[in-house]
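seq as requested:
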Amino acid sequence: VQLQASGGGLVQAGGSVRLSCTASGGTVRGSAMGWFRQAPGKEREFVAGTPRSGSATYFADAVKGRFTISRDNVNNMGYLQMNSLTPEDTAVYFCALGPRAITSSLRAPYAYDYWGQGTLVTVSS
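struct tokens:
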């Protein structure tokens, strides 16, 4: 499965961005989907995830209430809607797919088998 993340760019603080994740060579249906980010000089961190069932969503405390995650099983895509952005949200954002991921591990990078290349989001103050 190949994942392609897109939608990043430069946005002003308080603005919104929607990231897309396109899957090819496989299906997002039945897989956990996660979004992670990595800021310069920092480790990759969990942002949002949805389990294989798609029945719930999980968010890092830093983005709760501002970000939403969704999945389109028909078009084989995932999305991360980011609102009320702050400069602290500046990072490269990665989408990931975990066909074997269990819900309790959604926040861990090791739960995911496939990763996109990342898309840079820069939030200016």
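The mean pLDDT is 96.
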